[in-house]
Task: structure prediction
Amino acid sequence: MENIITIENLVFQYLRDEDGDTVQALKGVNLEIKKGSFTAIIGKNGSGKSTLAKNLNGLLLPTEGVVYVNGYDTKDYDHVWDIRQTAGMVFQNPDNQLVSAIVEDDVAFGPENLGIEPEEIRRRVNKALKDVNMGQFKKKAPHFLSGGQKQRVAIAGVVAMKPECIIFDEPTAMLDPKGRKEIMAIIDELHSEGITVILITHFMEEAVRADRVIIMHEGHVLLDGEPENVFEEEELIRSVNLDVPLMVQIGAKLRAKGINVPLNIITEEEMVDFICQYK
Ligand code: ADP
Result:
């Protein structure tokens, strides 16, 4: 399948202070993201996940190396809107993403900036709010909504721009378990509709839903592959102070007691199915 994002030897440095000292947040990352895929990126705080995410739609530009989005180099200023429209971003704190006093105006903000016709904007806003189950709140003020509801409005604002890819940077980190579940259901739904999903998360239970897991460590890609293969590297993952998903831990404990749980069982549903069939 075709790549939507190609990253070649990406180095990113922040300027730390006026003396010109730098922090090298990404130290040479090479990645290809296929159209329609669902990739989870995990890693400790400071491992470079957010910096990577912001390099994927031109919010940050490489210090060295190249990032291509749908073939456009993110440094090519002439295509900055093509890039932003192709790859939308959802951040951790919904309060920082909502700009209007009324939900539907907020969702319309992105498409308005793209210069889309009012009639088409109205259609997109209604559809996007329906997609995130927030249709009945369209005339409400965002500050009356719960954190999870605000995050759903923020997602609708991105969806209304019809991106091919959405990068979610810890979208559930500030939400309660119910809000988290709702956001993850929406992410699954968007993926099933063909949107390429890149999900940065520190919840292993969210990462196992992806079809690819990338573990970042100190500005490098430490592991990259299908979730069941990545989480087999339990020792390496623990050596960088990360956990493996609960079902992987339970599977290992059951195997130690002689119950032959296959290594590819990593989600709750898979474990329940296995146990129900176990004789
Ligand atoms: P993560 O998302 O995995 O927590 P980040 O990409 O936020 O990691 O950070 C990677 C490194 O870059 C860290 O060492 C962090 O302190 C540094 N960093 C992040 N943002 C800035 C910034 N605006 N200025 C200077 N250093 C930064």
Q: What stands out?
A: The chain has two domains: 37-57+78-239, 245-279. Residues 245-279 form one domain. The chain has a mean pLDDT of 94.
